[in-house]
Amino acid sequence: MALHDRVALIGLGLIASSMAHAMRGAGLCREIVGHARSAETRATALEIGLCDRVCETAAEAVEGADLIVLAVPVGAMGAIAAEIAPHLKPGATVTDVGSVKQAVITAVAPHIPEGVHFIPGHPLAGTEHSGPRSGFATLFRNRWWLLTPPEGADPAAVARLRALCEGMGANVEEMDAAHHDLVLAVTSHTPHLIAYTMVGVADHLRRVTQSEIIRYSAAGFRDFTRIAASDPTMWRDVFLTNKEATLDILGRFTEELFALQRAIRLGDGDHLFEYFTRTRAIRRGIIEAGQDTAAPDFGRAAEATNGTGKG
Amino acid sequence: MALHDRVALIGLGLIASSMAHAMRGAGLCREIVGHARSAETRATALEIGLCDRVCETAAEAVEGADLIVLAVPVGAMGAIAAEIAPHLKPGATVTDVGSVKQAVITAVAPHIPEGVHFIPGHPLAGTEHSGPRSGFATLFRNRWWLLTPPEGADPAAVARLRALCEGMGANVEEMDAAHHDLVLAVTSHTPHLIAYTMVGVADHLRRVTQSEIIRYSAAGFRDFTRIAASDPTMWRDVFLTNKEATLDILGRFTEELFALQRAIRLGDGDHLFEYFTRTRAIRRGIIEAGQDTAAPDFGRAAEATNGTGKG
What we know:
- Two copies of one chain form a homodimer.
- Chain A has helices at 14-26, 39-47, 58-62, 77-84, 102-108, 155-167, 177-204, 210-215, 221-227, 232-241, 243-266, 269-288; strands at residues 4-10, 29-35, 53-55, 67-70, 93-96, 117-118, 121-123, 144-147, 171-174.
- The first copy, chain A, is built from twelve helices and nine strands.
- In chain A, helix 7 (177-204) packs across helix 11.
- The interface between A and B is large, with 110 and 110 residues.
């Protein structure tokens, strides 16, 4: 079932290296060509045999490729697209794995030549690790891979990309790019910013020692450090490029937070109780949807293949 | 190694029922007597054989007990203390498992008669479940149990209580009540409030459907629903009674959040990158301290006995 003959991975971090393992494991292509900007990353990729070939330039890597995957930080997509554009094979498909879709489309689409398909994508999968050694074949298994094909996209190219994602174990959903960015602002981008902030607050505190924070982290804080440990470059670009949706959700968040803060200050127990009761229902919905487990201790002992850390 | 002859559990929720299982499993006392305000909870406790005896009143339950554990919401501690005070056996020890310590001491200490020891405590253990059926013997294993004995507390009584906690598998640490409340405001109370808030924001949103939020929750939001699903009564009381420390940390949190929000609005990528890099170090500290695992996917497949949900 070799759906694409040659796949070029531009950027060799967690997502691309996991794709390499997953595509090879499932026999989804004949050849994997890779490129990374850093010589060290290229050397590592060669050393661990991540790709069949590693190229020094992105232009060289995309030559003759049927599928090109842009797996670089969102802020680097435009420059890469400009660089590879003259070297793209007619009929090839370009996709990306960025956590933001509108900004990527704005940056990349103008460079894509006539006759080449551009189908933006976003796998909702990740860990707090990064780099070419962090990838593993099962990263996408049972995770969502969102595609945001533009109007008039070639159905055959979309179907081929969808089959590749499904071949790596993902569940594929198509949606509008603007809606994607809003949904992710709620489910991922704003939660990450908040987690980063809370971890930063703890770091500043003088009266509570760092060792105490670390020691007693399991009381709730640990879940924040978990989602605040992901790749800084990636997250910087997410917030810079999904600015409007993130600021919108952040505004709602601070409004709500101030209302709760006021309830605490005024001792309004009914407000707090009613609020905390309502949030339980969402949790139940997530368990019923099979996105998590109802086992005690949050099922940490039993849970197998879900994670966070990817925008 | 029966350290206490008769233990009275006042309140039969997650913590008390887990204590019953753990004490019985390790043979830490001869008899467990229980009381809960709700007739339904008492009936359940009888039905599942949680205690040797279940009493209709707290006063009755504490008669002749060597150790009395107040395992009710923080806001109910004062009234319970007043009710049981005349029935406490001379030489007995009263402890509690509340998530806030100063407010419990203010509410309970004045009622404790001369000759009875009062040693406040707080096990940092929990799940998002509550009620008499939610308890299990291993809840406290490798978790912290903080004791805040007042100045001049009887060393023998403290040692006996410490041995009981250790017998249930917990690591015991003693600290000042005010410091406890500040540490917990950072590591638990504020993170919980923030998680509740973020889940509440998602609930309000009209343009993103609830099913989308649930479906794509693994991208970060799921960790928030996890910590926002705990017992509403308990959390209401935590915020009402640890008001000052929580508002202090919340103030710092919103300051930091506004600084990050401003950086996003102004497109200040350096600020964001520097901030996100710093928070990674705390995560590493937690892994090195053995409070979590560095395994990919946050070790969800491998991790065994840690959890959150208790203040």
